[in-house]
Design a protein that fits this description.
It contains 11 helices and 34 strands. With 656 residues, it is of the alpha+beta class. The protein is 19% helix and 32% strand. Strands 2, 4, 5, 7, 8, 9, 10, 11, 22, 23 and 24 form an 11-stranded mixed sheet that branches. Strands 12-21-13-18-15-16 form a 6-stranded antiparallel sheet. Strands 17-14-19-20 form a 4-stranded antiparallel sheet, with no helix packed on it. Helix 5 packs across helix 11 and helix 9 crosses helix 10. The protein is flat and about 75 Å long.
């Protein structure tokens, strides 16, 4: 849920006092508490070749001593109870131990590595778990990487910039278990870097599915879209829910690997407050189960005729794209694990299970279904299609199962609120004191709509400049260009965002784009081939940040258009790899006539670095040329390195 601006916020903030507001939002500390910032923990990675910054909290005026290996530093907390020390830069290596002391209180951390840290943020395609990416089972089995470390940050929106992150379990060594619910894009990127560089790599996953780019911008950038309206009591409750939420996520993941426990829960009696009803087929997330992620149970009793007793039945339970375990009279008759589900092509997967005759009796029979949903995408939860039951040899006698089912919240997670500017304040700002090597960003889907898409370039650039200002250096910034997705719209909005992304590196030095245009899906907004997305981001970093000049990191990008009456020659920038046609011929090119009307055009390669685009007969005076200007196009132009050409729009007056 998004919140609007509270125009009286300034008055309210002055009344309550900034110190109280910060405390309610997690920005302050309780008196007497001595601790490190929550991003400091065992197994962490600290940025190499930069002064090492360690900070934390204690009573005002407390003297703090910090030791990292043989390096030492001291500090005294300020009036707000904050302390910070700087230690000398180190080369890649480790492990080291850190010890922080305040009087008789000591905090110790171990297994600390020095390497390169990458801050990874964005919406759901950055958040998307490794366990839900393509080939997940094999990828997880091979995910033991001791020199790759992971920090996952729980989601919270805050009204003002925070001194610390709200909740995290701390850094984890990359293992099949720890990476399971970590960003797939970030993991595959980090894995490539660690293999290529041979140094420790730290990945910070501070992503949040769903919000527009304003969520990742400071409030002051767009004051009319910035802060939220929400009571201080509600914010405090949300802050306190994070440990419970994190434990619940861990519990849900454990249940996925423990079928016996799931079977027990499927039959357990639930307290009245966890029970309700839902109309199926339908979207169970809209009303009765709104705001719920976790494990849900649906149950229905059905009356069967005596003639069906002992007969083998076919049970059809519609379509869904969630793991399930389905029971008939208390016995498991079918299940789909998450890793068994299709990973592209549709949100839905048909459920059809065979019921053995020994379970079927005349009169009342009970059907139960457990459904797991940890995506946090409550707006797409549903069961669709026909729900019916029939003897396998008599489908025409089918009994409909559509109607009201008992719903049960077996294990429900609290859902944090999204806010404009809230993610920046709560999940990004606290890291500005934690030195990093660079930033990854995968976002834009929520801005691909009228009134927002045309503002994306300015917002994108402002965001990069703001992050660099606060981190104090021109950090590398690599981002993903939106994949093909969605239905035909007039006018289409996804290519407008893609064009903003294409133009960003021209405006912002030391930034780069990894296009996912050719690995999208018309129906699924989350492309499952996150391995290739991570690899393409890694190519950007290896070439631009780590000096691997021999690598080809970019697909074809237009340099200029030479207009020639009824044709236009589009010249492309050198990438180190010649242009190639994907498929039988080039398609997706259009030209604009003198009235600005876009017309499909033919195109062919001219040498290794240009495309000649020709208007249909009778069209003269071309004023513009564009490529793949639709939401879900088919890429037909790329380079020999296997990278796709970006979509683009060029006009006589607007050369890139």
């Amino acid at each position: 849920m998004f919140f609007h601006v509270d125009r009286n916020l300034g008055v309210k903030m002055r009344k309550i006092g900034y110190w109280m507001l910060a405390l309610l939002l997690g920005g302050g500390v309780m008196a007497g508490e001595f601790r490190l910032g929550r991003m400091f923990s065992d197994h962490m990675v600290l940025q190499r070749d930069r002064p090492i910054v360690i900070f934390g909290f204690a009573d005002p005026g407390t003297a703090v001593q910090v030791r990292l290996g043989t390096d030492r530093a001291e500090a005294t907390t300020d009036a707000q109870g904050r302390w910070e020390v700087r230690l000398p830069a180190r080369a890649a290596g480790g492990p080291l131990e850190l010890e922080a002391t305040a009087g008789k209180e000591v905090r110790k951390l171990s297994d600390i590595l020095i390497g390169d840290v990458w801050f990874c943020t964005g919406q759901s395609n950055m958040e998307w778990f490794v366990s839900r990416s393509g080939n997940a089972r094999e990828e997880l089995a091979a995910a033991d990487h001791p020199q790759l470390r992971l920090l996952w940050v729980d989601r919270i929106g805050a009204m003002v910039p925070q001194n610390d992150v709200p909740w995290t379990e701390g850094w984890k060594v990359c293992t099949p278990r720890s990476v399971r619910s970590f960003s797939a894009t970030a993991y595959y990127f980090g894995r490539e870097l660690q293999r290529e560089l041979g140094i420790p790599i730290g990945l910070i996953d501070s992503s949040w599915g769903g919000p527009p780019i304003r969520h990742f911008l400071p409030n002051e950038v767009e004051p009319n879209a910035g802060v939220i309206r929400q009571s201080e009591e509600a914010l405090k409750a949300a802050q306190q829910s994070h440990p419970a939420r994190h434990r619940a996520i861990a519990r849900c993941l454990e249940l996925e690997e423990n079928p016996a426990e799931l079977d027990r829960l499927a039959m357990a009696e639930l307290p009245p407050e966890q029970l309700g009803s839902v109309e199926l087929p339908g979207d169970y997330s809209k009303k009765e189960l709104a705001g719920v992620t976790g494990w849900l149970r649906f149950r229905r009793e059905i009356e069967l005729p005596p003639a069906w007793a002992g007969r083998e039945l076919e049970l059809e339970l519609g379509n869904l794209r969630r793991p399930d375990r389905t029971y008939f009279n208390g016995e498991l008759v079918g299940a789909r694990e998450r890793l068994e589900l299709p990973l592209s092509g549709s949100w839905d997967y048909r459920r059809r299970y065979r019921v053995p005759g020994k379970l079927v009796r005349a009169g009342k029979n009970t059907i139960s279904m457990l459904v797991g949903d940890l995506d946090g995408l409550n707006w797409i939860g549903g069961i669709w299609g026909e729900l019916k039951l029939y003897p396998v040899d008599q489908p025409a006698a089918a009994v409909s199962l559509a109607g009201v089912w008992e719903s049960g919240k077996v294990l429900a997670l609290p859902t944090p609120e999204r806010t404009y500017g809230g993610g920046y304040n709560g999940m990004i700002y606290p890291f500005f004191r934690y030195p990093v090597r660079g930033i990854l960003f995968y976002q834009g889907e929520s801005d691909a709509r009228p009134g927002e898409a045309d503002k994306y370039l300015e917002r994108h650039c402002r965001m990069i400049l703001d992050y660099r200002k606060h981190w104090g250096e021109e950090l590398p910034f690599y981002f993903v260009q939106l994949a093909a997705h969605g239905r035909t719209e007039v006018p289409p909005q996804w290519p407008v965002v893609r064009e903003a992304q294409r133009l960003t590196p021209d405006r912002i030095p030391n930034s780069g784009m990894a296009s996912a245009l050719d690995i999208g899906d018309r129906v699924d907004i989350h492309p499952q081939n996150k391995q290739e997305v991570g690899r393409r981001l890694a190519l950007q970093a290896l070439k631009r940040t780590y000096g691997r000049s021999e690598l080809v990191a970019d697909g074809p990008l237009p340099d200029r258009a030479e207009f020639r009456g009824n044709s236009v020659l589009v010249r492309f920038r050198p990438t180190g790899s010649p242009l190639v046609v994907r498929g039988e011929k080039l398609t997706g090119f259009e030209v604009a006539d003198p009235n600005g009307k876009w017309i499909p055009a033919t195109a062919r390669l001219e040498g290794t670095d240009a495309v000649l685009v020709e208007a249909p007969a009778g069209v003269a005076g071309i004023t513009g040329v564009r490529y793949l200007w639709e939401n879900c196009p088919v890429v037909t132009l790329g380079n020999r390195a296997g990278l796709p050409a970006s979509s683009f729009l060029l006009t006589r007056t607007g050369q890139p």
